[in-house]
# Entry
Amino acid sequence: MKKISIVIPCYNEEENVVPMSKAVVDLFQNELKDYKYEIIFMDNDSQDGTRKLLREICKENIRIKAIFNAKNFGQFNSPYYGLLQSTGDCTILLCCDFQDPVELLPQMVREWENGNKIIVMQKDHSEENKLMYFLRSCYYKVIRKFSEVEQIEHFTGFGLYDKSFIEVLRELNDPTPFLRGIVAELGFGIKIIPYTQQKRRAGKTSNNFSTLYDAAMLSVTSYTKIGLRVATFMGFGIAFLSAIIAIVYLVLKLIFWDQFVAGTAPIVVGMFFLGAVVMIFLGIMGEYVLSINQRLMNRPLVIEGERINFDEKEEMKV
# Structure
């Protein structure tokens, strides 16, 4: 009997972990009863009652497992680490807030049984804020245009991954993994299924400007050269434009020596403009350097504080 692993990252999801575990278990007891399963909750240092509830859930069902991170290791490292801990013939990654529809899991498994190694769930519509969805669409289009790798629009990581691809992830040894880009770059046998992203069932999202900016910069620095190229071309452009303006000013001054007064305003404006451009592109280059630095340090993805129901003897009884 084949085994399916379900990896569910969570952070402050005390209102969702119990309904989510029940929804997944019910699915395996009814529509996917021909498969063994394990459910791995990856808790990223929740500060509410999530961990207490997870302990109770794991106590009731030894097929439900939990890993408690020693601290918050970010929105990318924790889910990725959870995938690496799975032991199933395939692994499904979904969010704990019910924005990823649980009822789509049987369809994903059928596509996997048909020979597809990776099932990518792609949002073609979302019940989230329309402005946010529009901004995400613009972001994906920019990344796709300038990336050397064909990126998958509106792909959040929600999908099914065959164990052969999980082995690829294990061998990467990437301390700052960006799963969406890795799937687009190294994924094979990909089947894309469109779906409508639902509203969060309960609780408050942990996404904010800082986390969204981190996600954007990680994808930009990992899969595009656009920042550095724009800096280079703009530098040449401004240098050329400055040379033209300088020549024009010189000619006008020579022709109209007494009448033409250049003044200090153009100099001041030009200095502030060039200073702003330099600061912007220093920041962009700093993002690339930071990305390189994080990879060179090669720190662990996460540090575990506790793991529950990973005892091999208990697992053999399942």
Q: What stands out?
A: Residues 313-318 have pLDDT under 50 and may be disordered. The two ends are 12 Å apart (CA to CA).
